[in-house]
Specification:
single chain, alpha/beta, five-stranded mixed sheet, 9 helices, binds adenosine-5'-triphosphate, binds fe (iii) ion
Length: about 325
């Protein structure tokens, strides 16, 4: 079975071809235009998707070296995401499925961040059911109990900002360009994680809150900059390391609680923030210290990509779960 998958939920235009569970190609075109605005501008995003989608799909087919007549079905991101961006991928997928006379499969982007673990890469083994998945991304922070491919239950989630936003907004406060998450990660590796102490939110149960952290970082930086105008520049590495350390502690605290509460020790992460090197190494250590089995996606399947849409497409294809031409994009699309 060959699946052609399309992802366009935010600011990455991506297309992939999968042969069963294996990825033959996974092309991602990241839109640079948003950098100068310090965040994603929805209007510009949809326009860029319109420009990118044809070349990206062509490149995915060319890299996979298969003719489009061989494709068994088209999978696409229906939501959640930016409406204008989703519409580009949705209408393109619909017309392609109509033109080729092959089935159309709608995919939930957040399910895809989790099911990316079932991509076969010849190295890692996928988690076994039931497992816990912590999805940490630009728009979401959730702890999900995954009983089966399409049987997922949210145990906890953020009450305000997503963890990716916490990274990006902290980065912005330090004058770093958008998206700041990867830069915080980079500088954190050179700094002392215990240099500065930031308060951790007190949130009941398995829910998260990140807006308070952002505010305390803002006040801290304002206070220190008043004393020393070069404070950020002189302490950038330590600031990044300490902020990242705090975020990781918040995440791990809830994850440990979730394991205790459910008794499930199969633990996976997914979403753009799971590309973070500190989170990856901290989770790896839990194998030894806590006796968990942990699953960390390959780097290229963490941030937005069409390969993860393709694996969901494949799993739905096997169940003959197809969509019809009346389907529309869904900006808010819950698990
Ligand atoms: P969602 O999946 O919730 O719809 P999204 O698709 O916009 O949101 P992703 O592409 O999954 O988000 O993740 C993007 C986020 O991941 C950004 O906030 C970015 O800063 C963050 N991110 C990426 N790499 C790293 C890293 N190494 N360290 C920290 N954050 C990172
Ligand atoms: Fe995403």
């Amino acid at each position: 079975i060959y699946i052609l998958a399309i992802e366009s939920s935010c600011d990455d235009t991506s297309a992939a071809v999968l042969k069963d569970r294996k990825v033959l190609s996974n092309i991602v075109s990241t839109q640079k235009i948003h950098e100068e605005y310090g965040g994603v501008v929805p209007e510009l995003a949809s326009r860029a998707h319109q420009q990118n989608i044809v070349p990206v799909v062509h490149q995915a087919l060319a890299t996979a070296n298969i003719d489009k007549k061989l494709v068994s079905a088209i999978a696409f991101t229906r939501g959640p995401g930016l409406m204008g961006s989703l519409l580009v991928g949705t209408s393109f997928a619909k017309s392609l499925s109509l033109g080729l006379g092959i089935p159309l499969i709608e995919v939930n982007h957040m399910q895809a961040h989790i099911l990316a673990h079932f991509i076969e890469d010849g190295k890692s083994t996928p988690p076994s059911f039931p497992f816990l998945a912590m999805t940490i991304s630009g728009g979401h922070t959730q702890i999900v109990q995954v009983n089966d491919y399409f049987d997922m239950e949210i145990l906890g989630q953020t009450l305000d900002d997503a963890v990716g936003e916490a990274f990006d907004k902290s980065a912005k406060l330090m004058g770093l360009p958008y998206p700041g998450g990867p830069l915080v990660d980079k500088y954190a590796q050179l700094g002392n994680p215990l240099a500065f102490d930031f308060p951790r939110p007190k949130v009941e149960g398995l829910n998260f809150s990140f807006s308070g952290l952002k505010t305390s970082i803002l006040y801290f930086i304002q206070r220190e900059t008043k004393k020393n105008p070069n404070f950020i520049k002189e302490h950038l590495n330590d600031l990044c390391a300490s902020i990242q350390h705090t975020i990781i502690a918040i995440l791990m605290d809830k994850l440990e609680k979730a394991v205790k509460q459910t008794g499930i020790k199969e633990v996976a992460i997914g979403g753009g923030v799971s590309a973070n090197s500190g989170i990856r190494s901290t989770l790896e250590k839990m194998e030894i210290t806590m006796g968990w089995r942990t699953y960390i996606p390959k780097f290229e399947y963490c941030t937005d990509n069409a390969a993860m849409i393709g694996i969901v497409g494949y799993l739905k294809y096997k169940k003959s779960e197809f969509s019809n031409q009346r389907i529309s994009a869904k900006a808010r699309y819950y698990l």
